[in-house]
Amino acid sequence: MYTISGSDATTEIEDAVAILNWMPSGLEMALPSSFLNAKPDFSKVALVGHSRGGKVVFGLALGLRNSILQYSAVVGLDPVDGNAKGIQTQPPILRFSQHSLNLGVPTLIVGSGLGSLKRNYLFPPCAPEGVSHQAFFFDSSAPAFHFVAKEYGHMDFLDDDCKGAQGKLSYCVCKNGPSRSPMRRFAGEILVVFLLSDDQFLISFFLPIYLF
Length: 212
Fold this sequence. Notes:
By secondary structure, the chain is an alpha/beta fold. The chain has a single domain (10-206), classed as Rossmann fold (3-Layer(aba) Sandwich). It is built from six helices and four strands, in the order H-E-H-E-E-H-E-H-H-H. It has helices at residues 10-30, 52-61, 133-139, 164-169, 181-196, 199-206, and strands at 45-50, 71-77, 107-112, 144-149. Strand 3 (107-112), helix 3 (133-139) and strand 4 form a beta-alpha-beta unit. The protein is globular, with a radius of gyration of 17 Å. The two termini are 31 Å apart.
């Protein structure tokens, strides 16, 4: 998405729209040969983003930039909208008003319990309280579902071994849990059930916040 994140995510939203608009004509040709008989169903498109990417998918669902595809679901994995309430990155997504984000589709938010905590005095929290998963859930209109892994951090959604300078930073800028694989499994399994289930099942199965 970016090499160094700035204060404006508009370009990332525009890039995501460009990819979505390319998909109906280009995705099948770009798939590996093992998917030769695969026929993507573009009437069922889910938007999923982590951290600043969560902000991007909410921006797409809110129509800040329009694509040719319609969206069926939105998922924010520890989404973040800036540094603090009143210090949002552009374009601001959160309105800090309950149910004010009317996406018109089911919404799943998976948060980290350690994301709002500083790892050390050198870096701010990676998912500051007030502009992260709790605020996104508060603003989201129904049907919306919220799960929190209390003992895991903002970067625990990532691979165990992240390469390059940015990958190395992911281990030291955020407060992390004991390992990353449980968080990935937790988020991945919830995501799969969410995407494969109808609303009635979700309401009965997912309404409580799940903590571990």
